[in-house]
Amino acid sequence: MRRYVFLLHRWTGIAMCLLMAAWFVSGVVMLFVGYPKLTPSERLSSLPVLAAAGSYLEPAQALRLAASPGVVEGITLTTIAGRPQYVLHDSGGGLTRIDALASGALRSVAATTGPALPRADVATALAAAQMFRPGAEAHYAGLVQEDRWTHGRGLNPHRPLHVVELDDADATRVYVSSATGQVVLDAPRAERYWNFVGAWLHWLYMLRDQPTDPVWSWTVIGLSAVGVFSAATGLLNGIWRWRFSGRYKNGARTPYRDAAMRWHHLLGLGFGLVLCTWMFSGLMSMNPLRIFDPAMRPDIQALQGATPAQSRITGPVPSMLRLLAAQSFSARELEWRVLDGEPYVLARNGSKEVRIVTESDGVLQVRKQWPEPRLIAAAARSVAYPVAAVERLERHDAFYYAREQASMYGGYERRLPALRVAFADPGATWIYLDMQTGQVELSLDRMQRAGRWLFNFLHSWDVPALLTPGWPRELVLTVLSIGGLLLSVTASIIGWRRVRKSASQR
Question: Which residues pair with 76 in a beta bridge?
Fold first, then answer.
């Protein structure tokens, strides 16, 4: 058995050593430079304040002009290419807000003059890019369905994408939605270049050809599985060959005299367990055989009780904007929503702050957050099982937490306070509601929570002590990555010698 384990480690190590080295290098880069994304703060800070003195159509008029063939689940007043516009989001069956934005169809209606607008053309894309970086000259670079920086499924409703190059100090490339004309992603030149040895290399995106690519998925799953076997058999071999009591004839506890073999053995004992957990958690990140898919999803439409197309507050837009301005809140975007049958408007400013505008007997009111009983009542409608427990979170917990901007989760909003509602369903589902917006930000059942530990914990050490942005997390992960890299480099040297020897013998 030991002979077979040794041979399995030898040949899987030869097959994987260079790729493992690349994964460690790219993993360190990803700590500091993330895959290109447009974060909420970047998007909102680039928008102008909605003028309270402006003349706006009401949402009902925009809906009539758009003549939507589907169910409109989202109505947003924003600024696109320098003009106020309504963006209508047709039904896509999304679970959370992030899921909803990744499905359905988008259309826009001019918010002041009224016509339903056609899909964004080149002029609109250029105007949107120049508004995103005022003063920068914009150059149109074409239309793409998808490229190496736009694999995210959240971009699906916006495809194809207009590509615009800006001559600002960062040489930023922006991608503009052909559906609405909004800037949906920015990628400065340095971020793109670093990503060639960062996320693009780490996720093997050179093999990915489309948003849903089963060939790429199973290739990564297969390579990760081989990496798990290589790391586990290597650790086992290393333990077998280490003299815990006594020494070899060379006076050492390792039998190897050759420098590469000796260091590979020592590094394997020191970092082999970390290598095993990283290979395994990388495999788990791909959700092989869909093992972490939830058995049941909460019914978000039931939680809302209606859509904005069916139920809206009647207060005029200028009145809302004046009321918000009187409370020193400069709204850059208004979003019509419904919670437990009660319509409201969610206002956002340029600092990721939000306010809720509700209406009672024709009088508009501004709130900072929803009352807890109202959120619990709404959440109870989303799952056909009793509520088992409710907890108000003033601090992030092990599942609902914020990550630094470079992370793949850097675009998620994880505000506090939040409400965690647990249900007595077979999957023990938990949902997290943002008390400031009334939106479901996260939903997890038992299997998805297990996936969080098998992927996020083992792969990126997402524990409370290391989640605060700063140097401790970066130092720990960098040191461990350097150890794994040196282990992979010594494996590459040994593997090259073995391959060269085998070729010479043949």
Answer: 87, 335
